[in-house]
User: What shape does this take?
Amino acid sequence: MTQFDLQVLAESALEAAQEGAQILLKHLDASNEDLVIRAKRDGSPVSSADLASHKAIFDRLAPLGIPIISEEGELPPVRERQGWAWFWLVDPLDGTESFLHHRSGFAVNIALCNADGPVIGVVADPLGGRAFLGVVGKGAEEVQLDDLTQRKTLAPPPAQPPYRLVLSRNEIAHVPDLLPPGIAANDVIAEPVSGALKFCLLATGEAAIHARTGPYMEWDCAAGDGILRAIGLTTFDRRTSETLRYNSTTLRVEGLWVSRV
Assistant: This one.
């Protein structure tokens, strides 16, 4: 990457996530009557908080000159996207249902990707007051959202049984069907966790495995995947057993798994 400084881009992504998180907290403090909520074409909810966070992130990242794919933005045509060497993947409010129910687990996701996948990943946890930043080749950090200079390097210890498996709240598969090869179900404790924070729990060492069978979108997992790549972990596509890839025609991910075991 010759025309960009990855560390500069990482700091810009972190600042953008901080701004998005601050906006979400302001909307969370407002009454539900103040939130404008509508259903998107796929039936999922979108609120004025999603849109306000999107605008703040877009305004911060757009001047950097790298194309942006955001859940709440206009999706460029596939032919145009396939010509991109670098692009941002953004979810300005990951976990809208959790947000609307004032439940922990919603986040801001920002990832910088190239043809190989995420190179920078940022997940901001507004309620937890922390963010997670990963840069491939440079490692990952936990960052305080109210002071971005306060950081802790992430270097999770080797996983020990019983292994904590974090999964989606609406996961329908049974635990044995979720596990990576070679792991026995009786060595696992499963726990539902909302959104991209599942990836972050692996980065901190608080969880050992994350698996998902249901489909979702690339902007839901790219940032978390980038953080894990920064500490040497690989996220696999459940269908192909290959490293997860991005900027597909549909931008859909049909299940995944990643493990520290």
User: Anything to note?
Assistant: Residues 138 and 230 are 7 Å apart (CA to CA). The radius of gyration is 17 Å. The longest helix spans residues 6-29.
